[in-house]
Amino acid sequence: MTNTLEPTLTGGGPLDDARTQLREATTILGFDDGLYEMLATPRREVTVSIPLRRDNGDTELLVGHRVQHNFSRGPAKGGLRYSPDVNLDEVRALAMWMTWKCALLDVPYGGAKGGVRIDPRHYSQAELERVTRRYTSEISPLIGPERDIPAPDIGTDEQTMAWLMDTYSVQQGHTVLGVTTGKPVSLGGSLGRATATSRGVVHVALAALRSRGIDPDGATAAVQGFGKVGRYAARFLAEAGVRVVAVSDQYGAIGSHTGLHIPSVEKHVDAHGSVVGFPAGEEVDDVLTLDVDLLVPAAVEGVIHSGNADRIRARVIVEGANGPTTPEADAILQVAGALVVPDILANAGGVVVSYFEWVQANQAFWWSADEVETKLADRMTTAWDRVTEHATRFDLPLRTAATCLAVERVAQAHLLRGLYP
Ligand code: NAD
């Protein structure tokens, strides 16, 4: 069997990384090439054009994608990204990682991802609303509470999800809260969803530090990215007693040897749109290579690669972002003895609470913040225990152990359902 879904970019990038990780897992699991190809190839994907009427009257054509990698275990699930760098292969990789993440956390979903090639910083709210509505309309035959449930990702937020939900609902003729997660709480969102990914990252980060004999209280950390994931990860780490000595965003990095006061950094970002210029911080060249106990990459994929992996000095790396470490870098870090907690485990808190939100929306019955937090902590701890146990038992790096557990679960669903016709 060959992969006939073209065009595909070649020569590295997240899709190659995702397929390399899958190949390693299927080899360990003893799966044949046919099963590998099936799991390496998206089940369904669509590319749409989005004509946008700009505020000045001009028309601009944008491109969007939605990829459903797998839905053997339930509806497809995955974020919607607005970024100038979006391309189909990136979306395919992100969709595949979503499949493994949902399986690993035993959330009854498959994996999907969407993206629109746009730099949202250069568009007005009215323009972004028109983009979102047109994109939603174009992909609406594919999505729905039982088919595919988008959520926020880079460059999108709860307002984007409110527009998406409204557009889909208008087309259906009734309000469909379960078509998306990450909605505003006043519109069927879940308490705790906005911070869920970061809460999960921190649950796992604290466990990972302890597993290496490092007391989180007073340990040092650097966080790359100060968006929806990085910002709250930094905040919760600091609240847990970790000294966050550096944070960064796409404009630059700041640091302080004594630890940054994260609430003040957040205020600065709200006022100025970036961490850069934070008065109580010094400029930092590269957050990734600082000598810290914990590094949380929470920005984009591929930032830790063969060109810089040998300069990474963090003892523990917890992947807030999806795909921040390439397989070549993984191998270098493994030899150096660093502990890498993979994305499909570390940042799964978002999809776990998305699942809780979908359950609540479908039942029109909402839970307390405490209930959400407790159930999230329980899921993250269970997954951490399972992955570390498997890794120890079979002497595998955490990523390989996590991918094997997830891929096996998805393959089991395939085998039980059988091949149609
Ligand atoms: P976001 O758009 O809210 O924030 C992204 C942040 O990264 C911004 O601060 C941006 O300035 C920064 N950034 C971008 N490029 C950078 C670079 N080269 N160096 C340093 N900083 C850079 O996005 P987000 O939702 O926080 O997502 C971040 C990562 O986490 C992505 O990989 C995403 O797929 C992943 N993720 C997000 C969620 C979620 O619930 N939002 C869940 C799981 C995984």
Strand content: 15-25%
Q: Tally the beta strands.
A: 12
Helix content: 40-55%
| CATH level-4 homologous superfamily of one domain | NAD(P)-binding Rossmann-like Domain
What is the level 1 CATH name of one domain?
Alpha Beta
Q: Mean pLDDT across all residues, rounded? A: 96
State the low-pLDDT regions, or none: 1-10
CATH A-level architecture of one domain = 3-Layer(aba) Sandwich
How are the strands ordered across the major sheet? Answer: 9-8-7-6-10-11-12
Q: Whole-number radius of gyration?
A: 20 Å
Number of helices: 13
Could you tell me which ligands this complex binds, including any ions or cofactors? Answer: nicotinamide-adenine-dinucleotide
Structure description:
The protein is α/β, with parallel strands linked by helices and 421 residues long. Among the domains are: 42-175, 3-Layer(aba) Sandwich (Rossmann fold), CATH 3.40.50; 196-341, Rossmann fold (3-Layer(aba) Sandwich). The protein has helices spanning 14-29, 33-40, 88-104, 125-139, 158-172, 196-211, 230-239, 262-272, 327-336, 343-346, 349-363, 369-394, 398-417, and strands at 44-53, 59-70, 76-83, 110-117, 148-152, 220-224, 243-249, 252-255, 282-284, 294-297, 316-318, 339-341. The strands form two sheets. It has a seven-stranded mixed β-sheet with strand order 9-8-7-6-10-11-12, sandwiched between helices. The protein has a five-stranded mixed β-sheet with strand order 1-2-4-3-5. α1 packs parallel to α3, α1 (14-29) packs across α13 (398-417) and α3 (88-104) crosses α13. The longest helix is centred in the last third of the chain and has 26 residues, at 369-394. The relative contact order is 0.13.
